[in-house]
Amino acid sequence: xxxxxxxxxxxxxxxxxxxxxxxxxxxxxxxxxxxxxxxxxxxxxxxxxxxxxxxxxxxxxxxxxxxxxxxxxxxxxxxxxxxxxxxxxxxxxxxxxxxxxxxxxxxxxxxxxxxxxxxxxxxxxxxxxxxxxxxxxxxxxxxxxxxxxxxxxxxxxxxx
Amino acid sequence: xxxxxxxxxxxxxxxxxxxxxxxxxxxxxxxxxxxxxxxxxxxxxxxxxxxxxxxxxxxxxxxxxxxxxxxxxxxxxxxxxxxxxxxxxxxxxxxxxxxxxxxxxxxxxxxxxxxxxxxxxxxxxxxxxxxxxxxxxxxxxxxxxxxxxxxxxxxxxxxxxxxxxxxxxxxxxxxxxxxxxxxxxxxxxxxxxxxxxxxxxxxxxxxxxxxxxxxxxxxxxxxxxxxxxxxxxxxxxxxxxxxxxxxxxxxxx
Lengths: 160, 253
Hints:
The complex is a heterodimer of chains A (about 160) and B (about 250).
Chain A: H1 9-16, H2 29-32, E1 35-41, E2 44-49, H3 58-72, E3 78-82, H4 95-104, E4 106-107, E5 130-134, E6 142-147, E7 153-157
Chain B: H1 2-23, H2 32-61, H3 70-75, H4 86-89, H5 95-116, H6 122-150, H7 154-167, H8 179-186, H9 197-210, H10 233-241, H11 243-247
Helix pairs in contact in B: 1-2, 1-8, 2-6, 5-6, 5-7, 5-9
């Protein structure tokens, strides 16, 4: 439990670190870069989040998970604001998040400035010889690839 | 303000109606990956339309006690109140027809949102910038399919040619401005869509060339969707889309 009168932004960030992404549970919502800011004004905590994709069904679940995490820790006076601008980009994903993704079997996004056609490296056997099967994968944020060496299909977190 | 609301509803309605059409492919796509692709695109479109409806609802509710929501805008307006492009209400037909419809719409959306993201209306600019990233993928995907089918077998080519013939007469409407568009253009909120016609044609022509098909000659173009005069198809779409809320008002699950 956190005493309401000693809530700091730091406390909130630490709690948010414990909220996993509902689709990719190895990533926290901080790894994903969707929490843009935490503001505390006269005891009211405001958490500003931005959606990954416009139609991402995980966003409602994420709001709910944030809500539950805060309430669980005795924080009642808060609001979650969703902002669209500036638009979320995979460049906001943390380096640690990218490493976790790769270990989980999902190839992490390239940086958005990288406009090359180089396909992602296979997260299983690390081969660079991979091919695109479909630009649309198991969720809105992923594309489907296959490794030409180990033949395993894998998800690639699309660069956005 | 009314004209801005009309404009936002026009953008939202086009997305929603195309969503409803595309969603019918769910579980029926030609192969699993493409079933997933068309439904993913559809998910982006519904997400974009939700952002637009939510914004329209906020504007409508200013100084209005009867709270309008994104849901009431989608589920409780009549056919004549919908301002979607006629293109988006056309039938799915076969896969070729769905691809051509998506391609025409995605290229239009791409060009429009590229300008709209510079709008002085911050909310619209934000929605456009966000949507543009998604639409970029839709353009690539639908272009690749158009080329694959057009430059494919005799049968796939025939289907693409038939789809173009069916849908081309509904493309002109995109670039004919309505009163509400003229009004938001004058206010510097939206780009003049008529000026994007050439860019659209150039992009379409480029992909058509790769697909070894040609652009139809000047033919009659239908208009009316943007101002609420639709083909008979919209009524059927809405009766499906709105059935639940009309029959069981305020139902939730």
